[in-house]
TrEMBL record:
Keywords: Antibiotic resistance, Cell membrane, Cell shape, Cell wall biogenesis/degradation, Hydrolase, Membrane, Peptidoglycan synthesis, Transmembrane, Transmembrane helix
Note: Bacitracin is thought to be involved in the inhibition of peptidoglycan synthesis by sequestering undecaprenyl diphosphate, thereby reducing the pool of lipid carrier available.
Any Pfam family matching the protein: BacA
Segments passing through the bilayer: 6-24, 45-66, 86-106, 113-134, 194-212, 224-245, 257-276
EC number, as in UniProt: 3.6.1.27
GO MF annotation: an example: undecaprenyl-diphosphatase activity
Presence of keyword Ligase: no
Similarity remark: Belongs to the UppP family.
Name the record gives this protein: Undecaprenyl-diphosphatase
Amino acid sequence: MSANLLFLLKTVIIAIVEGITEFLPISSTGHMIIVGHFINFTGEYATFFEVVIQLGAILAIVVLYWKKISESLKPNNLLVPGRPGFKLWLNMIIAFIPAAVIGLVFKKKIDKYLFNTLTVAVAMIVGGTLLIIIENSFRKSRHSTRDLESVSPIQALKIGVFQCLSLWPGMSRSASTIMGGWVSGLSTPAAAEFSFFLAIPTMIAASGLDIIKDRPHMNSIELIALILGFIVSFLVALLVVEKFINFLKKKPMRVFAIYRILIGIVLLVLAALKVITITK
């Protein structure tokens, strides 16, 4: 296999991982770090690639929820206080602010100290444990908010505070916001949908900042890989999101929590045995 073909294969693998994991509560960043370590897809370009293909997964949300998004953005809906579109995007702004502020302030330290296999493994275990505890405590609340239009600004703020947990790679943005939704009184499907919509401004802002600041010089094969990865992550996410929502309507998320904990333990054991290193 030629070097270029092998390189493209690695980028497709990472893109598939991103598409599957971006909206599941198991951490897309954590999985890309782990898989990238095992297939030797690391370095400046790999980091940039992982950022860009997240936008492909976000595009899947825009496509799947286009009817609701386009309706919410109509001027007579978006610009009139009290209207569903105004409430929806006001809540997204409120929920976006906490992680945006903390992320900007601590970005250099997060990049330096938290983007490695060991910290991801610990985050997997901590996040999985929190999922089980919070789901058992709050998921079946009798007063659950069951649709996005009914979410209050206070609930949005609580979700935004929980999203700060996702700044720790391996915690998962999806898991953090869904847990925040449970604590705030949202039903599981409503919490997941809030997580999807919140991903739009959050990931566009985070990815846009990284693209502007950290864009590497690329050759033709790297540019092709970037386009291919974007398309693959979009298509895979398109398939995963709808199935995930249908799953949440019927079953608890304990299976994802157990998976996270097991993966975290395996990684810690491999690190202890020096089978893997603790660097990205």
